[in-house]
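Sharing a chain and its predicted structure for anyone who wants a worked example. Both blocks are below, sequence first, tokens second.
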Amino acid sequence: MSTGDWEAYKDALRAGQSPDQAAQAAGGRFAAIYNKVSSLSDRVNNNLAQSNATLPVADIIDKPLDDAVIGIIGNRAMTAMEKDAAINQIGALQSSLKQGLGDDVSLVEAQKIKQQIGDRVNWGGATAVTDEVKPAYKQVYGAIKNAINDAAPDTASLNERLTNLMAAKNDVETLARAEEVGRGAGVARGVIGKSIPGMIEATAGRTLPAASAAARAARPVIGGLVTAVAEKQ
């Protein structure tokens, strides 16, 4: 099975389709894993919705981020300017996560916040996530995940499977973007890595200085994902 057509995915999003619909347009492993994530997400959320348990925002957001700030302050390898920048990023993260929340959140709300954190580290978004701040994302992600699993132990195994699937989905997305750069994004894109015109475009990208520079600029940086790292806690 091919990875999937990243350009088709982007075209579908531009046309106003949802990410799930766009994934079907991409096809391949991209569509297959989106289907699994969507199905398992529905099961997890339905199970969590049956619980009346709530989680204190101070425990799942404030405490892990406060601990991350303390770690940064005590990091002798960082300059004062780097520490200030990292602490400001953590403050912005804290504000964005707590926007509209009260003192406690339901398990479904906590699950959405957890996914928001994982997506933000994977895609970067408008605010880049630097290496100095990624541990803070890991800490708050892990705190929320563990709190949900403790509050709903019957759903814990499904939630762990979903976390693994999300990591796999992020890996496939990264691979699809990288393959799109390697084979060109013109009319020759076809099946990833197999069409002769696509190979010509990829070769041109390696031999022509301007094309090579553009490819390097477009190639995604593959960093550690919160959804994968949190599993090792």
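Comments welcome. Residues 123-127, 185-233 have pLDDT under 50 and may be disordered.
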